[in-house]
Amino acid sequence: ERIGSATSLNINARLQELVKLFKERTEKVKEKLIDPDVTSDDESPTSSPTKAAPAAAPVPPPKGEPEEDKTAEDEHYCEMLCCTFKCRPWLDHLKNYRFPSSIDPLTNLMYVLWLFFVVMAWNWNCWLIPVRWAFPYQTPANIHCWLLMDYLCDFIYLLDVLVFQTRLQFVRGGDIITDKKAMKENYLRSQRFKMDLLCLLPLDFLYFKVGVNPLLRFPRCLKYMAFFEFNNRLEAIMSKAYIYRVIRTTAYLLYSLHVNSCLYYWASAYEGLGSTTWVYDGEGNSYIRCYYWAVKTLITIGGLPDPKTLFEIVFQLLNYFTGVFAFSVMIGQMRDVVGAATAGQTYYRSCMDSTIKYMNFYKIPKPVQNRVKTWYEYTWHSQGMLDESELLVQLPDKMRLDIAIDVNYNIVSKVALFQGCDRQMIFDMLKRLRSVVYLPNDYVCKKGEIGREMYIIQAGQVQVLGGPDGKTVLVTLKAGSVFGEIRQVKHCQGAREIQLVGSGLLAAGGGNRRTANVVAHGFANLFILDKKDLNEILVHYPESQKLLRKKAKKMLKNNNKPKEEKGVPGDSLIIPPKPDTPKLFQAALAATGKMGGKGPLAQLRWRLKELKAMQAAQVSMERGDGKGWCSILHMALGECHCPTGICFATQKGNALTPTPPKSPVHRRSPVTSRKPHTHLGEEIFSKSSDSLVSFHVIPTAQEDEEILAAEISEKEEEKEEK
Fold it and tell me: Which GO terms fall under molecular function for this chain's record (predicted)?
């Protein structure tokens, strides 16, 4: 028997465990059906470990110290003879770094950083080759420094050709090619490879024959394609690209002046320093003096000495023509850069000027004009634009969706009405949201108007106004709150309940009117979803539409419950509600009921039932269904004399159907002074057999209302006092 009982216990435990596992499995499946994007609880497969040399057995960590922390800490320490020192983490990362087999030139920041070094080497050649050729700054004493920098730049060029350019991904037939052989062939067939090969011509070997002439390094300046690629990549990652454009245009102007100053010193040296008044006289800093002359020439300021020789005249004429052309190009490019940087501001000013001109033409009042100007000012400074849709209209639908998810999904996902709906339906809805700015004290919606929108507060606060004067603040909604999708914004004040009816987005018949005013408290940014847009979306998602209908009905049902069910204080009761009976006392009353209903506890039990019935009857009287009067007469007299001849309290299904037992104190039988069946509108009079209690049912002017009056004689009152 013991073995059998132990086996049955094991079987029961196993069954309970299986039931628990099935429940957990069911919950997981249910979550996946509701939200298919939920990640699985299964562990991701780990990569197979590579073959390594056998390591020593790990030493168990001391008590109280987790093993993972100990292992992570040991990785940063190296033992060397008798010393233990800590390695730098960045050095470990550098040792473990593996160069990528392919590089995305559009998004890889490492490639942008490498282009920066290439451009720096290119600028070294472009700026210093003319200086070393024209000015006597390269001497035999410092020639080794110049050559060291030159060959360092050549090494950067060589690395760019062999390592980086052969690993750049490219697009062919719509596919991104990452194959090493294909990427190398694509670079070898490109125009850039030809220019890179040309700029690396080894003309430096001619140094052995003609000497170190900087002009032999002029082909290094042909790597201009890396410069323009760096400009494009840098502008793509900068938040304010116009700043870099202004700096780049200024650098163009400075470089043209730099080349002109070098040519002027070369011309002066050709004619002879100080030979005429036009050439450089050889005093002061040669580069600064020549640069000053170049600035005055290109900008055509004037005040320069006249050329004397034919060479000087031809050189000056060419310099003037080149200066006018170059300077006009620089000024035009600078204007375009500044204009592009301030295009949004210009559009904003033009819109405001047009609006002000329109309001002045139609003589709009000044307060309205001031509010319009305030709206323009706040919208521009808060958003940086007047209409967000104009900015995104050129993007494809997928990119607009990605931006809308990043901007609006966190707010929309908090709406209880849309939780559990199809995720793609939520995404489609995000693209239909419109951003609107409301000024302080602006009406978002007014009482009595037809609601066709749902509002989501992005920033700021709104207030729901109500009360007799319509100015009482019922509730304040903050950022992240939603109103207008269904009857859900409520506020109870005393015995009154005020509801804000939303747009009724899910109402089939429409025509829902708002029952309260909503005013912006300060500046408020709201997202608006139209009913038309939501209906167009729900056509393609029938399951979500059913779910929304179900939620809407549930919310309306909860909002329309009687005040007694919600805990709202209603009208005062004739018999105030009593606290719940203690459980021990209820058990005693139940025991007396089983014993036959005799004794004081039985009488007390009947009194409690009678009290509950009176309270239920009072609620029934408030509803006006006629059961209340009959119930009270039944409890007081034992039977009812209804004027219609039909007793509501004795109908089937009523809680007061059982006839109460005889009272142990009084035994009264009703004595009516009128016939039981009377016509409507007549007064009903009844009293007990001992004439101590009398009842009057008096009709009123309204058909569905009657007055019940109960009179107790002085004898009855004296008995109750005793």
Answer: cGMP binding; intracellularly cAMP-activated cation channel activity; intracellularly cGMP-activated cation channel activity; protein-containing complex binding
